[in-house]
Every structure is written in C-alpha cells, then in structure tokens.
Amino acid sequence: MSDNAVKEVRYIWAINQALSEEMERDEDVILLGEDVGAPGGAFGASRGLFEVFGPERVMDTPISESAFMGLAAGAAACGLRPVVEIMFMDFMTVCMDAVVNQAAKMRYMFGNQYTLPLVIRTPAGAGLAAGPQHSQSLEAWFAHVPGLKVVMPATPADAKGLLKSAIRDDNPVLVVEHKALHAMKGPIPDGEHLVPIGQAQVLREGDDVTLVSAGRMVHQALKAAEELAGEGLGLEVIDLRSIQPWDKETVFASVAKTHRLVIAQEAVKAFGFGAEVAATVAEEIMDELDAPIGRVGAPFVPVPFGLEGAYLPGSGQIAQAARQAAEGGF
After folding, report:
1. Separation in Å, CA 257 to CA 206, 218, 235, 253, 312
2. Which of 56, 63, 106, 134 is 20 to 30 A from 308 via CA?
3. H or E segment at 261?
C-alpha cells in the first residue's frame, strides 16, 4: 500500500471505484452483463455508472452468457476494453467456449497481431446459503488455460488495485471476487492505486511455517496464525493475490526461511491451485523442506445447502495442518 492517505471502503465499493476511474480515464472501457445498467449489478458493483456513462458504455444484456461473452471477446479484438460481469462464477460454465477457445487463444492464433484486453468479473464461493449451483470456486479451471490470467483479491485495496491493473492489461483477465467479502471494509489509498498482477504479498511474517492462500481463505489463514501465535508457533502468511501467474519467488523465499509449507484454498482440495503450488515447490526446492507439504481444501462434494458450516474449510483446519507441519519433520 502506498504512503498516501487512506480511507475505509467496502470491497464492493472499491470495485465500483475502479470501474468508475477506469471508465473516466479511458473511453474504450465498457461494461457488459445482466443488470449492470440501471439496477447497478447483482451485487451493486456498477451502481451509478449507467447514469454517468450511459447505455452506450454500460450495457444490460439478455440472459445469455455465451452471447455476451462472445460479444465481449469480439469487442476486445476490435480495440475496446470490455469488462464483463458474470453474475455467479457457476455461470462461467455457460460461456466456456467464448472464454477458453476464443478469448484465451486469439493472440496466439493470430500471431500476436491483436491484443485481447478483456476483463471478466465474477463473484464466487460459498457461505451465503446460495446452494450448490451458485457457490462454487472454479478458479483452477481457468488457471489451467494458457492465455488467461486469474486474480483473487482478498481485500478492498486489492479488489480495486487488481481490477484496475486487469483493465489496463492487454490479455484476458478473470477477476474472482468472493461474495462473502463484498461487505468487508478496508483501507484504500487515495489517488492512483494499482496492484501488479502476479505479485504476492506477505501479510504476516513468521519463522516456523509458510502458509499460502488467496481470496477468502487469506482471512482464515490470518485467524489461524493469530491462534497459533498463542501456542508459540510463527506462521508466515502469504496472499498470492494472483494464481495465474503466481509469484513463486515470494513463496520460495518464505519456504527457504521456514522449511515448512501449508496451502489453503476454499475450492475442493483435489486439483486446485494448492496442488500446483505444492508440486512446484516439491519439484524445484525440495531440499528446503523439512516436513511434508500440507494442503487444506473443501471435501470432494458439491457445496451443500444448509451445511456450509461443516463443508467450508476454515481457520481450524489451517491451524491443525500447520501444527502437523511443524511437528512432522523428516
């Protein structure tokens, strides 16, 4: 965070600020999605922008994610900078072709003759009793696709800074916002605020276990670190912020100090970004590890309605994994 004066802003209003500032700065930035116009978006992220920038730049679309995502990919190829809102991340399944086969591949297939400055904002995650079709964390699908960037802001400052950086990027960027964070308040610097894509942040220093996370789970990691500090165990908490690309240099430096690693994600544990971090550490700096790598994630079942408290991984599981890492030296 910069040295500028800071003010407390809700996460959702930080997104609104980023959209407003970038639309004011660059007339090529347009918004598309269901209810993004006069209603202000399903969660209020575009509130007030229709009145300022008009229907030519804030475009309500029909309920057809495939259609308006294809429109956005074409608009980006033609020089505009569309920001698309997908109301729930689960609905990304409806427009996979436009994202994975078109937007992600276009610069490669046309010999880099085009840029593809497309941003996709989508609320994800469980905890609001929205049921199994509106609560998934699917970020690993998209991190697996060459040509896409994926960011997961955990704070209002990062929500604003990463979104602004994504809008200015010449590649398609997926911005994954956890719904449970939308009401969270946090400090944001006055003035221009950009967060580089691909740069992690060490939120808490510690000497005993490196704890890597992103999105909502960052706050669970910090809670676990506070609990374990009372037991004399020092956790170094790293917020990846971006999972594609991810900042392996920051993670490697921390593991070289602590010699133990735990990765926490809300998504089901199997095949998530935590597996990629774990595999990369094991492949490239195995000699730095003094204990097996620990992973925390959700069980391999759909998000249950009414049982989210039992389903969601949290600080308790993270703390237990960190204890095991600290005690389980080779």
Report:
1. 9, 20, 11, 7, 30
2. 63
3. strand 261-268
For 106, phi and psi rounded to 5 degrees?
-65, -45
Domain with CATH 3.40.50.970 in the chain: 10-189
- 3-class state of residue 85 by DSSP: strand
Q: Residue 159: in which H helix or E strand, if any?
A: helix 156-168
Indicate the pTM of the whole model.
Answer: 0.95
Q: DSSP assignment of 216-239, as one string? A: THHHHHHHHHHHHHTTT--EEEEE
pLDDT tens-digit series, residues 260-312: 999 999 999 999 999 999 999 999 999 999 999 999 999 999 999 889 999 99
Q: Give phi and psi for 180, each to the nearest 5.
A: -70, -10
Q: Identify the residue whose tokens are 């429109």.
A: 71
Q: Where in the chain is the domain with CATH 3.40.50.920?
A: 201-327
Longest dimension (CA), the chain: 62
Angle, CA of 47, 53 and 57, to the nearest 5°: 100
Helices 315-327 & 217-229, crossing angle to 10 degrees? 50
Question: Among all residues, which ones are annotated catalytic?
Answer: 134
Fold of 201-327: Rossmann fold (3.40.50)
